Amino acid sequence: MLAWVYRAARACSQLSDVLIATDSNEVVDFARKSGFQVMLTPVDCASGTDRLHFVAERVDADIYVNVQGDEPLLRPEHIDALLRPMISASISGSEVLVSTLATPCAPDQVSNPNAVKVVTTGDGRALYFSRATIPFDRDQTGMVSYRKHLGIYAYRKSALLRFPTLPASALEAAERLEQLRFLENGIDIHVELTPYDTIGVDTEEDLGAAETILLKGASISEN
């Protein structure tokens, strides 16, 4: 699975380099045998953002992209969409510090706490991420659109280096969502929409679903 993710990231022409960051010696051995770049990180990194912060202190770049190793349905189009607001903002003279992705949430996933939902402003700034069903359809109109957050991020170096210095967030602890630390400390997250869903592999069922799609050579949105 890790090989699928690594190769998909390498297929994105906008990335100058791809590196696996892990605290597992077993993963390091696998990566080296496969010819993949890899860095061993401390075991006390509490989140993927903390792990990427460790990398950013040692590998210089303007923008860092964080892709989870359990996202085998990653496509180059995901990373293109993720970087679009950062590139556009740089051209216009403004600055996006953190960006991420969302896709329409399937009806059977709306109440699933493993499918994180996100609500945004009209121009794409995240208002909140939650495992709960947001927004709440109080009058049960059936007309509410839900967006599922995809756990892929891009950070400018300045934002990434600030992350460990930001006060830990009560909402972050309650939801177990590290991105809420940025929002609670006044750092905007831009959410770009993509038609391509992914499956984060957390269970055997997830793994089976992802393998079926990969063997068919299709993304979720194409099924």
From TrEMBL:
Pfam families: CTP_transf_3 (PF02348). GO terms for molecular function: 3-deoxy-manno-octulosonate cytidylyltransferase activity. One of its GO terms (biological process) is lipopolysaccharide biosynthetic process. One of its GO terms (cellular component) is cytosol. The keyword Translocase does not apply. Keywords: Lipopolysaccharide biosynthesis, Nucleotidyltransferase, Transferase. The keyword RNA-binding does not apply. This is 3-deoxy-manno-octulosonate cytidylyltransferase.
